[in-house]
Amino acid sequence: MPIRSSGKLDIIIPVYNKEKYLEKCVNSALSQSYAPDTVILADDGSTDGSAALCDKLAAENEKIKVIHKENGGAASARNAGLAISEGDYVGFIDADDWVDADMYEKLITGIERNPELKVAEVKGGGNGLKPSGREPAILSPEDYFCELMMHTGDASMCTKVFKGDFIRKFRFREGEYNEDFELLLRMLPEFEKGILDLDTPGYNIELSEGSVTRSAYRQKFYSDMMQNAFIALRVSREKFPFQIERAERFVYVQALDFMLHIPVEEMNRKNAFYMRILRYLRSEEQKIMKNRYLSTKDRNYLILLLETPVAARKTHRFVMKARGKRDA
After folding, report:
1. What are the tens digits of pLDDT across the range 207-238?
2. Each residue of 57-92: pLDDT tens digit?
């Protein structure tokens, strides 16, 4: 039987053209051992059968509430869900993913045992993921920031549960990619007592058609990603001055990701964003050489790209094609 508690749980699911996956996602939310009080489906102007499916599911289960809105992106849909949320706890699931049956029970039990905390998280990534063996830990804001900077932390909102009165003070930045990371950076100063990391699986990702990670190159995706990387560097300077070298490493690795995905044809002086990142990397060459947190592989790639960017990118594309991997 589902667990009952005095704390009500709202689960917000932004929906855009995910008819193929939606029912599995919603069923995983409704089947939680910590029973949700409300599952909010925020239809973001879907053009397939998703909107009708949302209404059908709501007619079959009184716990489901549906919002139909004009298309504005996942952040906009999540914000619409937050606006009607009333739960003591709030979680998010993407419409093409699903969650283990006990995920919210683990998360909320963890917070109830540590009532001074505002957020708890599990691991995300897919079925079969094993915990590292580490005991659940309360990470200080600085420790959590370090994990994000080293790409070992989880910046997804979907692997977390938040106290409702806390998360409703915030809104996702609309019209931008990488919005989870950006919002977490804004939240960090208010995580005074830390974040509960349960170090256990729970969230399962479906890499569906149309996901950003599998879609064609979009410069705005990388532009937003780099904007947030520079915000993180500023946060480090203002809040965590002892982590600046890690934050610089984060910016370098994000820039490397961009440089390894931009089409060769767009690596020219007319591309202002490309030129900005190239000039930045060249200005940072000495720091890149000395950064203790960069891997040797990443450092070597960066040096090649800042010295002979087009030639290095062409070589990388050739190698990826030879290995049978899709060139972004």
Report:
1. 766 555 545 789 999 999 999 999 999 999 99
2. 999 999 999 999 999 999 999 999 999 999 999 999
Task: Say if residues 130 and 48 touch (Cβ distance below 8 Å).
Answer: no
Asked if 79 contacts 183 with a C-beta cutoff of 8 angstroms, the reply is no
Could you tell me which of 226, 313, 300 has the C-alpha nearest to residue 263?
313
Distance of CA 324 to the CA centre of its chain: 27
**φ, ψ dihedrals at 81, nearest 5°:** -65, -45
Count of positions (residues) in the chain: 328
| Dihedral sign (CA 314, 315, 317, 322) | positive
The CATH topology of domain 9-204 is: Spore Coat Polysaccharide Biosynthesis Protein SpsA; Chain A (3.90.550)
Under the banding of pLDDT at 50, 70 and 90, the label for residue 266 is very high
Domain boundaries in the chain? 9-204, 216-322
Sorted by sequence, the CB contacts under 8 Å of residue 102 that are 6+ apart come out as 32, 33, 34, 202
Question: Is the pTM of the predicted complex or chain greater than 0.70?
Answer: yes
Task: State the pLDDT confidence band at 319, using cuts at 50, 70 and 90.
Answer: confident
Partners of residue 15 on adjacent β-strands: 43
What is the spatial distance between Cα 113 and Cα 204, in angstroms, rounded to a whole number?
Answer: 25
* pLDDT for residue 243: 97
pLDDT band at 320 (very low <50, low <70, confident <90, very high): confident
Q: Provide DSSP, 248-281.
A: HHHHHHHHHHHHTTS-GGG-STT-HHHHHHHHHH
* CA angle in degrees (0–180, nearest 5) for 81-207-107: 50
Residue 73 identity? G
| CA quadruple 199, 106, 89, 65: dihedral sign | positive
Evaluate whether 158 touches 97 at the Cβ level (below 8 Å).
yes
pLDDT of residue 211: 57
Whether 294 and 255 have beta carbons less than 8 Å apart is answered as no
| Residue 35 predicted with pLDDT over 90 | yes
Helices (H) and strands (E) in the chain, counts: 13, 9
Distance separating alpha carbons of residues 233 and 186, to the nearest angstrom: 13
